[in-house]
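Appendix B, record 7
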Amino acid sequence: LLPELHDLGDGPFPVGPLAAEQERRLVFDSVTSFLTSCAGASGLLLALDDLQWAGCDALDLLTTIVKAARRIPLRAIGTYRDTDVNGADPLSSALADLARAELVTMVPVTELPREEAAQLLESLIEDREGISADLKADIIARSDGVPFFLISYAEGLRSGAHAGDILTRTPWSLSHSIRQRITALPADTQELLGAAAV
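Structure tokens (predicted):
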């Protein structure tokens, strides 16, 4: 995994090409050993985002790491969009396997209550002056407590967008994300959404 550390190891190291499965096992063992070393006595928290895009190899590695957490002070937090995952996806299989082994807990993330949404927005724009209470209230109402929406509006304000334009134009990061998700839909569904948008 890290050839430059070859001289620091206690060997023996394999010479020549390995069978794919053996090479894979050695990589998984190396990653687990690396994380064990990083964890030390105080432990390690591994945070992973957008697991819906992870491939089979990455999920197999993650499963190996989570199973190793039984014997090393390691915890992993992973996020994914459940709207982007169906029963046939590799992530569904990996989560089902980990759930059967009682190694995973699901915590759905929902919209923030209005008060928490206001706190998040305040923390994101605390260095910006001249933002009216009405504009903040409008942003909170329009975002409906969805953190990604709040962050997108706050980024728009921080980037210098005129306060009057912030609600008339969807923030770039938000519109780009929506466009990306629509593009992945079947053509018939896209056509239906286009008609509904009009």
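Remarks on this record: Residues 20-39 form the longest helix (20 residues). The chain has a mean pLDDT of 84.
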